[in-house]
């Protein structure tokens, strides 16, 4: 059986689950949050292009999330200064 190493663990191909993948993303690390924001943005762009009605609202919400994160970060940085 072939195995791969992820985050210092050896996981076999037959036993890799979604929980193992998300544990190795480390949401406090370098790639976790940017990947999550990219996925939310992609959902927002796709729903805005492909649908009407409720999809427009989903698009607005999804595309607002990165802006809210940026605004929060700027606000926290200016408050420290």
Describe this structure as you would to a colleague.
With 81 residues, the protein is mainly alpha-helical. It has two domains: 1-26, no CATH class; 31-81, no CATH class. It has three helices and two strands, in the order ββααα. The chain has helices at residues 18-25, 32-50, 54-80; strands at 3-6, 9-12. Strands 1-2 form a two-stranded antiparallel ribbon. Strand 1 (3-6) and strand 2 form a beta hairpin. Helix 2 packs antiparallel against helix 3.
Question: Could you write a compact summary of the structure shown?
Answer:
With 81 residues, the protein is mostly helical. The chain has helices at residues 18-25, 32-50, 54-80; strands at residues 3-6, 9-12.
The SS-based structural class is: mainly alpha
What is the residue-mean pLDDT, rounded to a whole number?
Answer: 79
Number of helices: 3
End-to-end separation in angstroms reads: 55 Å
Number of strands: 2
Based on Cα principal axes, name the global outline: flat
Provide the domain count.
2
Radius of gyration: 18 Å
Q: Which regions have little confidence, pLDDT < 50, spanning 5+ residues? A: none
Helix content: 55-70%
Largest sheet: 2 strands, antiparallel
Q: Give the SSE string.
A: EEHHH
């Amino acid at each position: 059986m072939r195995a791969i190493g992820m985050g210092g663990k050896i996981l076999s191909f037959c036993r890799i689950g979604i929980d193992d993948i998300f544990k190795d993303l480390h949401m406090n690390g370098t790639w976790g949050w940017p990947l999550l924001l990219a996925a939310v943005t992609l959902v927002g762009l796709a729903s805005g292009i492909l649908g009407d009605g409720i999809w427009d609202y989903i698009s607005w919400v999804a595309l607002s999330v990165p802006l809210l994160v940026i605004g929060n970060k700027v606000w926290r940085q200016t408050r420290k200064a």
